[in-house]
Amino acid sequence: MIVELIFCFMATVAFGVIFNVPYKVIWLGGLIGSVAWFIYSTLPNWDISVIFATAIASLVSATISHFLAKRYRVPVTTFSIPGIIPLVPGSRAYFTMLAFVDGNYIEGLQLGIETMLQAGAIAAGLVFALSVFSFGKGGIGQRYESRRS
Amino acid sequence: MNADRMMDICMLAGEIMLTYGAETYRVEETLERMAKSAGFKNVHSFVTTTGIFLSFDVEGNDVMQMIRVDDRMQDLNKVSLVNQLSREFVSGLLDGDEAYKKLEEIAKAPMNYSPWLLHIASGVAGGAFSYLFGGNLFDTIPAFIAGFAASFSVVALQEYMKVKFFAEFMSAFLGGAVAILLVLLGLGENLDQVIIGTLMPLVPGVPLTNAVRDLMSGDLIAGVSRGAEAVITALSIATGIALAIALLL
């Protein structure tokens, strides 16, 4: 587990270099990525589905990103992009593609739907953190007008 | 301040932010705040993934300008620098000329990290992800080399190819081919994990995250177009690797 976390830290910092994150905050992105990976790989041991674990990991990393972004006065993407990178369903996407190449369309569809669900879970976590942190800033894209007099 | 001058400053700031991967709402908010702080009324901005429109009122006349943004790259350092600059401008620490000079410096500034470090980082990311997705320590070596090759080829090909997606397709193909050849030569054991690790540095992380953010803040056009960009990138990577597998296995 500790080896995995170290590898995850390295991978996330490397992604920080690829996306050119500023020097002084790049290690924080690595820490957020490690936290996300820890949650994502620990929760399935307790009978929690992988999709739900992804959503929770994404929510936690997005929340930490919002706090740190306020603290260090940088755009929140500086932290949230490296933070969610370990959750990206690269392995499922690859096996989906492999199944389609081999002509196993049923298996490919199943894996493809799992891939989409995991991507959706990442998005859900991001959006949940976003909506909590934009609380009280005035709505955008609201369906009902709430301040009717 | 002179309206033309202010328009130039705003447009340059917006162009830098949008080119290097800021979310649409951040660009709109930055432009509106900067123009309002300079004393212009009736400020409106409309930002999509490929262009910026900005208009404001100058002594009864409306001034409006648009700018087209063709390149989309990933450089979060520049986004945060412009963010910082706009904050200083709004709070009055900078005047217009200083701000414009600083923006030009930011636009020309090189990446924080040298290209070689970037390729090595891609290799490290490839190796580390091949381990995380179930490979063993021995698999990290071919994944490192193949990730390095994929990153190197995507940078080199983008110089010559006008179509971004084809460069990504080719680099996925080359990275996959290197990975398969290395495993066939006996370096590394789990072929699948090595290939997954190789592909991870090519994943369109910035467009994906920004697409979600844009859609949720109500910028539907920008969100859908950015999402389309991310999906096409992912598809071209998948096609490239599928071609490598079909040819070499």
UniProtKB/TrEMBL annotation, chain A:
Keyword match tRNA processing: no
InterPro entries noted in UniProt: ThrE_2, ThrE_Dicarb/AminoAcid_Exp
Keyword Electron transport: no
Membrane-spanning parts: 7-40, 46-69, 81-101, 121-140
Membrane topology: Multi-pass membrane protein
Location(s), subcellular: Cell membrane
Keywords: Cell inner membrane, Cell membrane, Membrane, Transmembrane, Transmembrane helix
Lineage top rank: taxon: Bacteria
Domain Threonine/Serine exporter ThrE: 5-131
Major site of localization recorded for this protein: membrane
One Gene Ontology term from the biological process aspect of the record: succinate transport
Any one GO cellular component localisation term in the record: plasma membrane
Family: Belongs to the ThrE exporter (TC 2.A.79) family.
Protein name, as recorded: Threonine/Serine exporter ThrE domain-containing protein
Record organism: Alkalihalophilus marmarensis DSM 21297
Organismal lineage: Bacteria, Bacillati, Bacillota, Bacilli, Bacillales
Automatic annotation (TrEMBL), chain B:
Keyword Membrane: yes
GO terms classed as biological process: succinate transport
Family per similarity comment: Belongs to the ThrE exporter (TC 2.A.79) family.
Pfam families in the record: ThrE
GO cellular component: plasma membrane
Naturally occurring in which organism (per UniProt): Alkalihalophilus marmarensis DSM 21297
Protein name: Threonine/serine exporter-like N-terminal domain-containing protein
Domain Threonine/serine exporter-like N-terminal: 8-247
Origin superkingdom: Bacteria
Chief place where the protein resides: membrane
Protein location: Cell membrane
Keywords: Cell membrane, Membrane, Transmembrane, Transmembrane helix
Transmembrane segments: 116-134, 169-188, 194-216, 228-248
Entry-linked InterPro entries: ThrE-like_N, ThrE_Dicarb/AminoAcid_Exp
Topology in the lipid bilayer: Multi-pass membrane protein
PANTHER family per UniProt: SUCCINATE TRANSPORTER SUBUNIT YJJP-RELATED (PTHR34390:SF2), UPF0442 PROTEIN YJJB-RELATED (PTHR34390)
Example GO molecular function: transmembrane transporter activity
Lineage of producing organism: Bacteria, Bacillati, Bacillota, Bacilli, Bacillales
